[in-house]
Amino acid sequence: MDILLNVVNYIVNLGAAVFLPVIMFIIGLIFGLKPGKSFRSGLMLGIAFTAISTFISALLVGQIAPAAQSAIERAGSNLQYMDVGWTAASMISWAWPFAATIFPLQIVINLLMLWLKWTDTLNVDLWNVWTKIFIAAVTYIFTGNLIVAYIVAAVVIVIELKLGDFTAERIQKSTGIPDVTCTHSGMMSLLPVMPLIWLIDRIPGLKDKKFDAESLKNKMGFLGEPAVLGLIMGIIMGLLGGYNVADTLKLAIKVAAVMIVLPRLASLFSEALMPISEAAAQFMQKRFPGRKCYIGLDWPILTANPAVVTSSVLLIPVLIILALILPGNKTLPFGDVANFACLVIGPAILFGGDIIKTCIASIPILTVTLYASTAIGPTFTKLAQNVGFAFPEGSASITYLKAGPVIWATFEGVLGHWYIAIPLVILFAFSFVILKKSYTNTLKAEE
């Protein structure tokens, strides 16, 4: 176990910017791409991840998050569980003694499902295996049953692959990159809201309206420009955070920069992945006629969709308000208060970049997010204590904001709260049916 853990930890500690390019270089060679082109694609992928992660760290986390945190403190919140963010959550997850076993579990399940033709998605985003480790770890601490922990992790792996299958066509249209999809756990935010998305797409007077970046610009003039929207949101966040005029204006410019620069950086993913995607398509056509194969990747490939970035910024004040007013919520948004864009990628893709509709569907997503992170708070705190995590100063209880709906349903079921768990499971199943029947392979019919 120690040897496996050391090997996996070494690989994962390379980070997505190093690990994924190596994986993509190997995949490119397997699909028949020349070594030089395969190397360049891997290198460009590493550059893309580095550029976006640096930008998010410097502005979203480094500049915008403090304003949101200040607004919460000014509101006098006494919320119990502090969100420590994904970086700390991943460190805690990897410190779980059985962490390394989830790595081969994901690979085996994926390859088995491909062989049985139960999925067309090859998930190469192995760096984010930590999200399944997190789910397994908190489930084990909560239930004391390792088998249950593995089962829950396996279910999440399968869900990610199937969501990758069902959303692949729309993701390819959004990114302009053929034969790719997204296998990030953030896609699971669709599970509680698919009926709402389906309803919004059928409400008279709303279904035929388009509120993407270009439409808003045409309707609102310069006020609809992403940069201007960012400027306005930055001013609002600065005022809520109690900033002076100078600091508020500086923040406003930084928020505007996020709205403009982040989507443009996403074009690097297209440059990196296009050669490998084309080689993969030719490989499959030649050896497996009629068989599709989607390359499952991390969520930053979707930042080219303006609704992903714009909606997540617009929703920061909404998250703060929900945290303060929702009955039963005990989560204090902190570490990921300005870094939850992965939660809105599902609606943004299904709505074709419609910012207003994405925001509407994302409000219940944020509600579920707060309740899920509240539910795991005591268990996650215990896990962190067990692995010797150094708690933030002044905080005795912690949680992870983006825990997700599946872990919430699991916890409620183990607690015997069937009035919550059973409706959630039924809702998830219903959402899968709606997604497959109404949003999979339907783009030509809609155009």
TrEMBL record:
<feature type="transmembrane region" description="Helical">
    <location>
        <begin position="251"/>
        <end position="269"/>
    </location>
</feature>
<dbReference type="InterPro" id="IPR004703">
    <property type="entry name" value="PTS_sugar-sp_permease"/>
</dbReference>
<keyword id="KW-0472">Membrane</keyword>
<feature type="transmembrane region" description="Helical">
    <location>
        <begin position="338"/>
        <end position="363"/>
    </location>
</feature>
<feature type="transmembrane region" description="Helical">
    <location>
        <begin position="307"/>
        <end position="326"/>
    </location>
</feature>
<feature type="transmembrane region" description="Helical">
    <location>
        <begin position="133"/>
        <end position="159"/>
    </location>
</feature>
<dbReference type="GO" id="GO:0015577">
    <property type="term" value="F:galactitol transmembrane transporter activity"/>
</dbReference>
<feature type="transmembrane region" description="Helical">
    <location>
        <begin position="86"/>
        <end position="113"/>
    </location>
</feature>
<feature type="domain" description="PTS EIIC type-2">
    <location>
        <begin position="8"/>
        <end position="446"/>
    </location>
</feature>
<keyword id="KW-0812">Transmembrane</keyword>
<keyword id="KW-1003">Cell membrane</keyword>
<feature type="transmembrane region" description="Helical">
    <location>
        <begin position="220"/>
        <end position="239"/>
    </location>
</feature>
<keyword id="KW-0762">Sugar transport</keyword>
<feature type="transmembrane region" description="Helical">
    <location>
        <begin position="43"/>
        <end position="65"/>
    </location>
</feature>
<keyword id="KW-0813">Transport</keyword>
<protein>
    <submittedName>
        <fullName>PTS system, galactitol-specific IIC component</fullName>
    </submittedName>
</protein>
<dbReference type="GO" id="GO:0005886">
    <property type="term" value="C:plasma membrane"/>
</dbReference>
<dbReference type="InterPro" id="IPR013853">
    <property type="entry name" value="EIIC-GAT"/>
</dbReference>
<feature type="transmembrane region" description="Helical">
    <location>
        <begin position="416"/>
        <end position="435"/>
    </location>
</feature>
<dbReference type="Pfam" id="PF03611">
    <property type="entry name" value="EIIC-GAT"/>
</dbReference>
<dbReference type="InterPro" id="IPR013014">
    <property type="entry name" value="PTS_EIIC_2"/>
</dbReference>
<keyword id="KW-0598">Phosphotransferase system</keyword>
<feature type="transmembrane region" description="Helical">
    <location>
        <begin position="180"/>
        <end position="200"/>
    </location>
</feature>
<feature type="transmembrane region" description="Helical">
    <location>
        <begin position="7"/>
        <end position="31"/>
    </location>
</feature>
<keyword id="KW-1133">Transmembrane helix</keyword>
<dbReference type="GO" id="GO:0009401">
    <property type="term" value="P:phosphoenolpyruvate-dependent sugar phosphotransferase system"/>
</dbReference>
